Amino acid sequence: MSTPSSAPASAATPPSRCADSLADSFATSYAGVVAFIAVATEGNFAKAGDRLGIGRSAISRSVQKLEDQLGTRLFVRTTRSTSLSAEGRRFYERCQPGVERIIQAMDDMRELREGPPSGRLRICSTVGFGRKIVAPLLHGFREANPNISIELVLDDGPTDFATDRIDVSFRNGRMEDSRVIAKKVIPMQMMLCASPGYVAERGLPTSVDEIANHRCVNFRLASGRVFEWEFKSGGQLRKLSPNASLTFNDADLVLQSVLDGHGLAQMAAYQVCDHLRAGRLVSCLPQYAPDDRGHFMCFLSRQHLPARIRVFIDYMTEHIRAMDLQILDNPVVKAA
């Protein structure tokens, strides 16, 4: 019994044609994905073309080829608007991190080739820390790095690095998000304070339990939850939600209310250290202050940081640590 002969070599697809097909597919996919990301980000084809430096028609053709290749519609187009389809939104979420990494890699190589760090930095910080600590240091950083432009966004809410295009975020407290790198700049000391006028009228608590007998001023977080006061007692963390006579969603208003003698509040040392040293505030229960909080600079887990981000992190770390923001070892606080 004879066996079937193998197919002639000419019936197989020539290797060169396979290579050409792969190259064509890659070229179409990459150009289409870049165009697609630009349209999704800018909201329409014309703005996407301006951002990429090519015409609207070229953007449209690239997206159309990508849609044909994927066999699905990525945008819902009308005469007045362009929006992502359900499939387009899913594709956007999957593609964006990869495209951003490619862009970052190219920016990094360009910076290495062209010399001094340059480009745009978008920084986010909690409102209080951003106003008092971060913003005043930006002027010195800009003088040292004139080719870097900075936008500072103050927001007490969580940071969405991808959607908000954030390069570095300053966060307070404890960091539990494994998706980002969190560099601890300094410890975050929490101080229970009152004004001398309040102390003369009402005295100070001598224990955590006595706080319930005092007027208190609370801070409401961006999440809507009221900030819990924390104390370390017997090696254990104790949280307290005091009944407040006043509650604010702005840390500066909490501080001003305490300075005006309206009650006690637990605030970060960076807010109150100058007032404590000048005698405008008095601290109490420093022996119960929590010791596991910090001020952090957070950024995405990238193996190779762009030079502009790297120099910013180094500059801010050095200058924040040089500031006299720690107060717990001060004799004035210990005496209180």
Q: Helices and strands, in N-to-C order?
A: HHHEEHEHEEEEHEEEEHEHEEHH
Strand content: 15-25%
The proportion of residues forming helix, as a percent range, comes to 40-55%
Shape label = elongated
Q: Average pLDDT value? A: 84
Distance between the termini: 104 Å
Number of strands: 14
Protein name: LysR family transcriptional regulator
InterPro entries: LysR-type_TF_proteobact-type, LysR_HTH_N, LysR_subst-bd, WH-like_DNA-bd_sf, WH_DNA-bd_sf
Family: Belongs to the LysR transcriptional regulatory family.
Keywords: DNA-binding, Transcription, Transcription regulation
Describe the 3D structure:
InterPro entries: LysR-type_TF_proteobact-type (IPR058163), LysR_HTH_N (IPR000847), LysR_subst-bd (IPR005119), WH-like_DNA-bd_sf (IPR036388), WH_DNA-bd_sf (IPR036390). This is LysR family transcriptional regulator. Keywords: DNA-binding, Transcription, Transcription regulation. Belongs to the LysR transcriptional regulatory family. It comes from Pandoraea pnomenusa. By secondary structure, the chain is of the alpha/beta class. Helices cover about 45% and strands about 20% of the residues. The chain has helices spanning about 15-40, 45-50, 55-70, 85-115, 125-145, 195-200, 250-260, 270-280, 305-320, 330-335; strands at about 75, 80-85, 120-125, 150-155, 170-175, 180-185, 190-195, 215-220, 230-235, 235-240, 245-250, 265-270, 280-285, 295-300. The strands form 5 sheets. A 5-stranded mixed beta sheet has the order 4-3-5-14-6, with helices on one face. β3 (about 120-125), α5 (about 125-145) and β4 form a beta-alpha-beta unit. α1 (about 15-40) crosses α2 (about 45-50) and α1 (about 15-40) packs across α4. The longest helix is centred in the first third of the chain and has 29 residues, at about 85-115. The radius of gyration is 28 Å and the shape is elongated. Mean pLDDT is about 85; it is low at about 1-15 and about 15-20.
